[in-house]
Description:
This protein has 387 residues and is of the alpha/beta class. The chain is 44% helix and 14% strand.
Amino acid sequence: MKFYNVNAHLHTPYSFSAFETLVEALDRAYDEDVKVVGINDFYSMAGYEEWNHEARRRHLCPLFNIEFISLQKEDRDNGIRVNDPNNPGRTYISGKGLACPPALGEPFATQLAEVRAESNRQVKEMCDRINELLKAQDAGFNLDYDVMEQAITQGLVRERHLAKFLRMSAYIYFRNEPTEIKIFLEKLFGGKSLKSDIYNYSGVENEIRGNMLKAGGVAFVPEDPKAFLPFEDVHKIILAAGGIPTYPFLADDAKGEFTDFEKDIETAAETLRRRGIFSTEFIPTRNSIEALEKYAGYLYDNGFVVTFGTEHNTPAMEPIKVSARGGVALSERLRQINYEGACIIVAHQERIRNGKHGYVDIHGIPEMEHRNKFIDEGNEIIKKIIS
């Protein structure tokens, strides 16, 4: 079996993305010989049909995924950091291989809409705080939330959109004059120096976000608990949408450290199984090749579906072809693990599309004993699409 390149986790402008358009992501995937591509936006399935159409036009095989931030109360109460290194209990969860066109009944559709609305409300309040600061400093302009929502989002507004919109507005107002922009931003930062070059847009936006929109910043607004559905509810939404609940591993950081939940892979795997999670993913650019081999290898050998992606949910543009930290190429074993995981997801979503039983049932129980059958099915589908 040939192991085609897979990127199973890409954010698009339907949440926040390094890409200006959804099509740009697919063009870059095509240019880098990445044959299987997964849309994976926060709280949104709105891009699925465009992703499907445009991917197939390029002979790329699409995956239909989604991402949530949930709350695992047991871990929060025990002070356990899961896959958010700063907030105990807060847990990122993806759904893989959802139905396309999207199909989500009640009460799940309303729950999802309420989470999106709460996310937007928080960012609007931060926008209001920035406008108060701009007025107090007699900046000469302010930020129109509605214009931002219409101009640079697809309906879901994230704090990164706000940082981008402030950067764009300042550059327009000061006619791209570097000295004036630098003075303006440093004033907003309370006198703190701007470290990025003015023309390093992603760097400037990250500094705006870090200095103004994160905890301790002048425009920071704490997230309301309503923004985080309980883990159990997210699990139900993903299954109701036809998907496979998936746990995104952080694994090792640049210092070689792991979160409380992930530091023992055997215990983590057992806990995930107990919680009804039999699929996992990694963003390998975060990880050493050694940690990736150990963690992904263990999970694969113990029956989990394992896939890799790059996210691209920051302003920085990086390669779409997946590699480990420092640009280290994936080993043949890791490429196999990633491709076979993608094959299972492809077979699952195709069966769901045809009204059949997928890799997991309505309760999330997987057909592990038939894993090789799903791999073979998915491989044939992928080969047909890309050829």
